[in-house]
């Protein structure tokens, strides 16, 4: 199941692409000491990465979203004058993601199930399967704790310390390597949470449709 979940969620190439602009920013800042040049380097790399992603046939909206995140980071750091603030968007995004995933579990719409259900074309039909709902809820906690909470703690500490080099290293280490680990662990939790006879993620057990009541004819008058 870990392979199937990894195939569904994907993201290795996208995660690697997303780390290139922050690494370029940190490298340029460490070499030149100029926030302006570092921001320009990050934006240039973001444009190159965006062009490569478009050439691979990725959606324009996804590409523009990635470039917008880099642009916002550059604007923030140019405004504050603090190099570590380039990573502030990443910190805030992970805080918001941790809260969103936790709330989704509480309201019984775990986001892992929502995402996988959409990718499989099931929409929310999987919620009618109590076993899948329970499994997705448990597996979604892996994403809350192992990915978003861990990232928040690491990025928050390094941002508070103002360590730009360490922030760039953490940005790489906590991208695809962490995502791969989270996918593997959450897939294991999914598998162990489902009964042995369950047909799997692609085949939710839907309740049988209710049979119409049998019309009983009364005695002839």
Automatic annotation (TrEMBL):
<feature type="transmembrane region" description="Helical">
    <location>
        <begin position="60"/>
        <end position="79"/>
    </location>
</feature>
<keyword id="KW-0472">Membrane</keyword>
<dbReference type="Pfam" id="PF11361">
    <property type="entry name" value="DUF3159"/>
</dbReference>
<protein>
    <recommendedName>
        <fullName>Intracellular septation protein A</fullName>
    </recommendedName>
</protein>
<keyword id="KW-1133">Transmembrane helix</keyword>
<feature type="transmembrane region" description="Helical">
    <location>
        <begin position="141"/>
        <end position="162"/>
    </location>
</feature>
<feature type="transmembrane region" description="Helical">
    <location>
        <begin position="99"/>
        <end position="120"/>
    </location>
</feature>
<feature type="transmembrane region" description="Helical">
    <location>
        <begin position="168"/>
        <end position="190"/>
    </location>
</feature>
<keyword id="KW-0812">Transmembrane</keyword>
<dbReference type="InterPro" id="IPR016566">
    <property type="entry name" value="UCP010219"/>
</dbReference>
<feature type="region of interest" description="Disordered">
    <location>
        <begin position="201"/>
        <end position="221"/>
    </location>
</feature>
<feature type="transmembrane region" description="Helical">
    <location>
        <begin position="23"/>
        <end position="48"/>
    </location>
</feature>
